[in-house]
Amino acid sequence: MAVDKQQIKALRWLYADEKAFKKAVRQLVVKDLKDSGDADKLKQFYKAKAKLTTKELRAQAKDLKNFVPKTQLKKLTDWIVLKFEAKHLGYIAGAALVVYLGVAYGPLTGSSSQELTPEISSTSDTAATTGSAAAATAQPTDYLLPATAEVTEENIRFDPDKGVSSFVDSIGGVGVTVSMQSLPSDFLGDPDTNVKDLAEGFAATEKISVGEDVHAYRGVSVLDGIETVIFTKNKLLVFIQSADQLDLDQLSGYIAALN
Fold it and tell me: DSSP code of 245?
């Protein structure tokens, strides 16, 4: 599986902290090159270069010749520069803004009554307020509630700066975090296709049809094993995350009951 722009875009949405973003990208690239037989050496290489600037990385990229075949050298060098230099990801700011809810995953394995401390991240401060990347601002009333009695309006957390509503619940006894925002304006023309493209960046390629109108996409992160489900409903972009695998029938029923 080649590392592509959709995967890098997903990581940028997921990790607002630059250090965490770099670490995630390094892990993804190393995993992608595992079949080359040089994974251990590559890990050492990335670890040694973790604190270098992009300029230093570019200058020392020739060191890669000691770790990978010549045929892969240019491609891998380009990957390093792309992934370590934030300005090379500027194309993201021109895309539809998606504010992604990155969760402290530990509590997800517990009951739905446990408190989570969400870390909400966006592509950039600039993209959040300018150009076609600006999404419609969500209001506190812009959310869906499950049919379960455990979650009420009082349980909804709303971040007015990010326009994201979220709550903690469980599906079949498995803890989940549900977050949602107004569908980005650039998604409105063809929401199904845009959500599908976004989901691919999270490796969420398993399509789940809920009725005739809702198509969700599910996948598991190769980095941390977190299961993510992405879909749109009632003009909201919705993420469901869990540290454990969710039963398909129970998940479908849960999505259908969200209103």
Answer: P
Residue with tokens 């129970």: 250
Residue 105's nearest CA partner among 238, 225, 11 is: 225
- Under a CB-based contact definition with an 8 Å cutoff, are residues 221 and 245 in contact? no
Considering only CA atoms, which of 126, 123, 119, 120 is closest in space to residue 97? 123
Residue 201 DSSP SS3: coil
Average pLDDT over residues 79-86: 47
Q: What is the DSSP letter of 4?
A: -
Main-chain phi, psi angles of 171, to 5 degrees? -125, 110
Q: Which two tokens stand for residue 19?
A: 């250090």
According to DSSP, residue 147 is labeled S
Q: How far apart are CA 245 and CA 64, in angstroms?
A: 38
Give residue limits of the domains in the chain.
5-86, 153-257
d(CA 103, CA 118) in angstroms, rounded, equals 5
Helix/strand/coil for 33: coil
- Residue type at 142? D
Q: How many residues does the chain have?
A: 259
Which amino acid type is present at position 84? Answer: F
Q: What is the pLDDT averaged over residues 5-25?
A: 68
Q: Is pTM, for the whole model, over 0.70?
A: no
- What is the mean pLDDT of the segment spanning 113-128? 33
